[in-house]
Amino acid sequence: MESHNTTCQRPEPPIFWERAEGANVWDVDGNRYVDLGGGFGVANAGHAHPSIRDAVAGQSAQLMHAMGDVHPPAVKVALLEALVRHFPGGGPARALLGSSGSDAVEAALKTALLASGHPGVVAFEGGYHGLGLGALDVTWRGFFRDPFRARLPECTSFARYGDADSLRAAARRCPAPVGAVIVEPVQGRGGERVPPRGFLRQVREICDTEGWLLIADEVYTGFGRTGRFFACEHEGVVPDLLCVAKGLASGMPISACIGRATVMDAWPVSRGEALHTQTFLGHPPSCAAALASLAVIEEEKLVARAAETGAAALAALRQACAGHPRVTACRGLGLMIGVACDAPGTAAHACREALRRGLILLPSGNEGQVLSITPPLVIERSRMLEALAVLVECIA
Ligand code: PLP
User: Fold this and answer.
1) Whose alpha carbon is nearest atom 7 of ligand 1?
2) Which of 142, 146, 157, 258 is the most buried (most CB within 10 A)?
């Protein structure tokens, strides 16, 4: 029934989720799991947080769908106000809503072209920005790009992640004049790669000198994941454009490209036909979920909690994996942690074994050699440490 591209059945069938709450997931057979992946790094406030559930239920009862860019739902306005309030640096900002991370990236790429007049973009090796045909052009992995190359504009060149000095050479290689640089402050699907301190600030400085716009893709890192509200705050960097999705609503599909007002105002004023929009723009239950999730993150101090739990988890992992013959590095920032293994097979085996022992997690990295640990930020420290002790036993 489903395209055979989608759900992998081998070497073992997946589990089928029935219910989830906090950092726990139950499958259809009643087995309980600890969700060390946070449902692809989405459930920042925890699965099915009561406030978010209530917000979605209340909004759905009142208004499930409106006319996003024509006769919009009131809740969209409240969310836009909240998003621009959170834009780093505190200057005037504007936002463009979407439904997925890929949408947010494509809105940013379009904005960058309108604002700079230049289609070229420098992205980074290992970077992942989504699979829509626009976002795919800045995503690194050949696995995703190669079958669709004939449809890609190929206006992108790739610099070495963590090495700001490689930016200018990459720009010279770019097939089109460069208008923007897109970067993940910590690479997620690329393998939880934390760049050296100062990298992002250097990228910002080079962009300023060269007149390039800086797009921070915080689809994965946003909303407390790395122990700061946005990961660019670790270095006090203010991007021109910021892409957010995943943890924005902790489980409802909504995203945004938020940007400095002067850059966003490159969009023409709508005279009745929006130049960039979609049917479900400003989807009311998703907007309500996002507002509720933002409130939970603040009220439950989840940003600080991610920093503390993440630091304890990383320290425990480093201790447990010291000298481990199959682990080459434990790294991370907040609750975005990677255990790099000696081979993709090691990581794949560990994920399968962990699932058998009640832990859900995925491999990341370009070869799938990293164990990716991105649980809900609400996970209790003791459960996290117990789960990691089990995980280390699964690496063989
Ligand atoms: N950007 C980053 C940094 C991501 O990690 C992802 C997804 O993992 C995306 C963009 C694309 O998001 P989506 O899968 O919602 O389109």
Assistant:
1) 130
2) 258
Angle at which helices 74-86 and 284-299 pack, to 10 degrees?
A: 40
User: Measuring CA to CA, which residue among 387, 384, 362 is closest to residue 128?
Assistant: 362
Which positions ≥6 away from 232 have C-beta within 8 Å?
Answer: 88, 185, 200, 216, 218, 238, 239, 242
Residue that finishes a domain, picked among 251, 267, 299: 299
Token pair, residue 90, equals 């505190």
- The pLDDT tens digits for 284-333 are 999 999 999 999 999 999 999 999 999 999 999 999 999 999 999 999 99
| Burial profile 234-255: b = 16 or more Cβ within 10 angstroms, e = fewer | bbebbbbbbbbbbbbbbbbbbb
pTM: 0.98
CB 222 within 8 A of CB 258: no
Task: Give the pocket of ligand 1 (CB within 6 Å).
Answer: 100-102, 105, 128-130, 184, 188-189, 217, 219-220, 245
Determine the Cα–Cα distance for residues 45 and 138; give it in Å rounded to an integer: 29
| Span from the CA of 237 to the centroid of ligand 1 (angstroms) | 21
Same domain, 255 and 330: no
- pLDDT, tens digit (0-9, with 9 covering 90-100), for 219-240: 999 999 999 999 999 999 999 9
40, 106, 128: residue to mutate for ligand 1 pocket, most atoms within 8 A of CB: 128
Q: Which residues contact 35 (CB under 8 A, 6 or more apart)?
A: 20, 23, 24, 25, 43, 47, 360, 375, 376
- For residue 36, is it within any domain? yes
Of the three residues 265, 299, 333, the one that is the final residue of a domain is: 299
Q: Do 70 and 140 sit in the same domain of this protein? A: yes
Residue 3 inside a domain? The answer is no
Q: Side chain identity at 133, as an amino acid letter?
A: L
Cα-to-centroid distance, 220 and ligand 1 (Å): 7
Indicate the number of domains in the chain. Answer: 2
396 alpha carbon – ligand 1 mean position (Å) = 30
Domain CATH for 330: 3.90.1150.10
Range of the domain at 318: 17-48+301-394
Ligand 1: residue of 99, 220, 221, 250 to mutate (most ligand atoms within 8 A of CB) is 220
- 32 CA → ligand 1 middle, Å: 27
